[in-house]
Amino acid sequence: LGRAARKGAGVKVRQPLAELWVRAANPAALDGIRRFEAELRDELNVKAVRYLDASADFVEYRFKPNLKLLGRKYGKLVPALTAALKELAGDAARATAHAVEAGQAVTLAVNGENLELLPEELLVESSGPAGYAVAEDNGTLVALNSAVTPELRLEGAARDLVRSVQDARKSAGLAISDRIKLFVAAEESDFLREMLAAWGDYVRSETLATDLAVGAAPEGAHRENVELGDGAATVGIVKTS
After folding, report:
1. What does the alpha-carbon distance between residue 186 and residue 163 come to, in Å, rounded to a whole number?
2. What is the C-alpha to C-alpha distance for residues 145 and 165, in angstroms, rounded to an integer?
3. What's the distance, CA 29 to chain centroid?
4. Confidence band of 55 (pLDDT split at 50, 70, 90)
């Protein structure tokens, strides 16, 4: 569900995000999620996992009648049925949405009558708060804070750079233990320098770079064009040992 939320928000997994909110389907599921919280943070690349109360209305559901099916079935009751669906909120809206998802019929009071509505007769829309990507299935809900702060953007770029250098090392035929001199030139040079000021030690450690310089690589270096943040960059590596 977390990966689905990331995909929906258009945020790649290597970009760190601040938090993931979780509402578990039941207490046993909540205990299991808490047990593996560290793995969840690592796999989804979030700084924190937080938990929603089972009654929390984090998602807003909206319902409309499927007029192709209900128009002929209920005729003059359709306007009142539409109004009754619009009034569904809170626990009632959530229960209705979960019933439709599970393929179950829904009973709705309309003008003093209890109407049984089949799942295919209802159209369900859902939305989360601004800035959150939400995914839900079988009673479990996740809400991913999709905001990328300047600090998170720097960290994401550092992770992208490390991956690019690791790929360049493989292309150059280097052994895992080989040390290198690393050169990086980017369109966004100010951003590159800011990122390396914050994450240079991490980049050097992960790539086994004894030296890390901003600028074009010397003749004879292995070079590759890569993406860095929202721009393009060129990495150059020279084996030192």
Report:
1. 16
2. 29
3. 21
4. low
Q: Residues 6 or more apart from 195 whose CB is under 8 A from it?
A: 154, 157, 158, 161, 229
Residue 180 CA to its chain's centroid (Å): 34
Nearest to 221 by CA among 181, 185, 174: 181
Would you say 20 and 45 are in contact if contact means Cβ atoms under 8 Å apart?
no
Cα–Cα distance list, 192 to 47, 73, 90, 154, 208 (Å): 23, 63, 47, 9, 19
> Residue 171 is which amino acid?
S
Across 198-225, average pLDDT: 95
Round to whole Å and give the CA distance between 136 and 198. Answer: 36
d(C-alpha 40, C-alpha 49), whole Å: 8
Distance CA(60)–CA(54), nearest Å, equals 15
Could you tell me the strand order of the sheet in which 231-239 lies? Answer: 209-214, 180-186, 231-239, 222-228
For residue range 66-121, what is the model confidence (pLDDT) as tens digits? 998 888 888 889 999 999 999 998 888 888 988 888 889 999 999 988 999 999 99
Q: How confident is the model over 209-215, as a mean pLDDT? A: 95
Distance of alpha carbon 142 from alpha carbon 106, whole angstroms: 25
Q: Exposure pattern of 102-116 as b/e (b: 16+ CB <10 Å)?
A: eeeebebebeeeebe
CB 6 within 8 A of CB 156: no
User: What values do phi and psi take at 75, rounded to 5?
Assistant: 50, -115
